[in-house]
Amino acid sequence: MALFDVIAFTFTLALIGGFIYGVIYVVNLVNQSVESTKANLKSKGMDISANGMSVKTDKYVDRQDYIDATQRKIMGVMEASSFKKGGEAVSPGLNDSGSEESRRRRNIFHRK
């Protein structure tokens, strides 16, 4: 009986030790992966620290580029939107009212 107790105790200790070793191994593996990812991002110009993230850019954006990009986005939004004018949806900046099929599709959800 005493030999069985020693074997059971040894097996239990080995099982607990193996579990603890497995947890430590997984934690170290995750930490190595995080450090590898940080080093990879740092080589691409992104630095991640406890205080936040900083991004290095090589391109300097001047005022004219900023204005051009803003105007392009505004024109894209205006072309994608429509205003209701006299019961018919009309796209801003476009003079033609479209085909009969497109007018019928646009008015399908309007009240009559």
Q: How many structural units, i.e. domains?
A: 2
Low-confidence regions: none
Q: Which H/E pattern describes the elements?
A: HEEHEEH
Q: How do the strands of the widest beta sheet line up side by side?
A: 1-2
Beta-strand portion reads: 5-15%
Distance between the termini: 93 Å
What is the helical fraction, as a range of percent? 55-70%
The quaternary organization reads as single chain
The largest sheet, given as strand count, sense and whether it forms a barrel, is: 2 strands, antiparallel
- Per the principal axes of the C-alpha atoms, what is the gross shape? elongated
What class, by secondary structure content? alpha+beta
What is the CA-based Rg, rounded?
A: 33 Å
Please tally the β strands and state the result: 4
Mean pLDDT: 80
Helical stretch tally: 3
What is the secondary structure topology, with strand pairs?
Layout: H1 2-43, E1 46-49, E2 52-55, H2 63-80, E3 83-85, E4 88-90, H3 100-106
Antiparallel strand pairs: 1-2, 3-4
Please explain how this structure is put together.
By secondary structure, the protein is an alpha+beta fold. The protein has two domains: 2-55, no CATH class; 63-106, no CATH class. The protein is 60% helix and 12% strand. The chain contains three helices and four strands. It has helices spanning 2-43, 63-80, 100-106; strands spanning 46-49, 52-55, 83-85, 88-90. It has a two-stranded antiparallel sheet with strand order 1-2. The protein starts with a helix and ends in a 6-residue tail after the last helix. The mean pLDDT is 80.
